[in-house]
Fold:
Amino acid sequence: MDNTQNDLQALREIVRDLVLRVHQLERRLETSEASAVVAPATPRVTPPPPPLPSATPLAARETTLIPAKPVLIAPETREGDLESRIGSHWLNRIGIAALLVGVSYFLKFAFDNNWIGPAGRVTIGVLAGIAVVVWSERFRSHGYLAFSYSLKAVGISVLYLSLWAAFQVYILIPSGVAFVAMLAVTASAAVMAVAQDAEILAAFALAGGFITPMLLSTGQNRELELFSYLALLDLAAVVMVARKPWRRLLGLSYIGTLLLYIVWYSEFYDRSQIRWTVAFATLFFASFAIAPLLARRPEKEAAPFTAIPLLLAFVNAVVYFLQVYAMYEEIDRHAMAWFALVLAAVYIYLSRQARDRFPDPENAQKLHFLHLALAIGFITIAIPIRLDGHWITIGWFVEAGVLLWLGDRIRSTFLSGFAVGALALGVLRLLSKIDDFNVTTLLFNARMGTFAVAIAVLAATAWYGVERGDEVGRQGAAIAVVVLNVLALVALSREVADYYARETAAATPVERGYDPTHWANARSIRIAEDFTYSTLWMAYGALLMIVGFWRRSSFVRWQALVLIAATAVKVFVYDVSQLDRGYRIVSFIVLGVLLLAISFVYQRDWLQLSSGRKKPEGTA
Structure:
């Protein structure tokens, strides 16, 4: 009896423990449901826990235990899951492709055995294409959008191929009827795209529109019809991206237009068609120049497609200029300079429109600067097209000066950067001796004039950099001062070289045979030239040192020290062995006096360099 009583008590403890655990699980499930679902208006009252089991018999208590309501938890799905993507998209497309291949083989077998005539084949194709498009709507209504769009692509493709076969293969219909029918297919696909808000359908329609001229090509030159049709397609694309955030259609439309233009140009263009060709090229350019200003920005767009308006604006400008240049280069090359300036004015206007009216605030500033950069680029290109020789270099330096002035007026670092670029072009051209200067007079010649313009612009650049007052401005000013001094020294050295070259030519006339007198004259002229280089460099170094002391600029003084050190190396290494005794003595005496004078100034400490009372130093 005691054992039975003990067993019953143990069983009661177990049941009580189970009841408590079930109650805790119910409370947890209710808490999770409340966090996942919006709570109702009336507060939910949590029922009290069931009473603990008492001495009531076990059989009687079991009827009071209510099982917990099962809770269905939806399986977690991830949109980017690879398995789901393969199953829902790629298997769908592979299956459609396999079905098309199978049907194609069957139809080919039927055609080869003459089961179906040409008219029947075309009719089957047209009806099958329409049926597939209609059938796809059933899947769209059930939410299978990707599958529905894939079926529509198949149906549209079958319609294009059927109409192509009716015209090209079986010659059942004339080209006009085939063109109207294909245009109807394109228009229908575009209407479906807008109605269903499906960018992929719009891409199908646009691709079909650009394929139509190739499917209906007869090998004849129909420039007016072809380019008029392309202009309408491009206009439709621009209107579509202005109404819908489908920027990628602009890229597709531009690529299609450009490819068809290149194919036509390579086969049919000749100079007699230049007016119509330039007119249509200008029309295409205008369409795609305006399109980025009208394109709506989608709420969520993949990173690779955010720069489509910027890329299109750049490529459109470059390609249009090259198109017109290729046609007019042999006719009137200088007229292309004015054409480049007109394009520059157009892009200056577009830059203002991009800043004020572009519907994408994030990229408005980028598009504004891109248009401004294109304008400056066309101005830079116009200079070498219109000018010749050293005038190109002068033109780039003048452009740099104008950009520098504009950048200072409107506080634009962007324009200042382009000014630096134009300066770099001019400096490289000067140093590389591309310009063939025919120098006949000393100092007062075209080369010194060009160097003077360069030095003046560099001086203005240095002044502008100091006026900015920031680190970038100071660094730019320092570089400009260094380049200025290098150009000045190069210009003077070239004058020395040309002067002695003329002296050598006059002293050694071209004659047959060897004349020791001519050789001796040439050697004395070469020795004088080497001495003049040393004198020039020492004088320029002394001038820089004077300016450095006057302006209290250690930066200028360091440039002077470097130049004087280089001259000293030349005197001790080269002049000792090459110059005559008189020139050698003068070189060493002048160098020694210059070095002693500079040393005396530093020892007197006129600038108080050794004390802590330094004065502010500039860069010029």
Q: What stands out?
A: The radius of gyration is 42 Å. The longest helix spans residues 471-507. Residues 34 and 42 are 13 Å apart (CA to CA). Residues 508-620 form one domain.
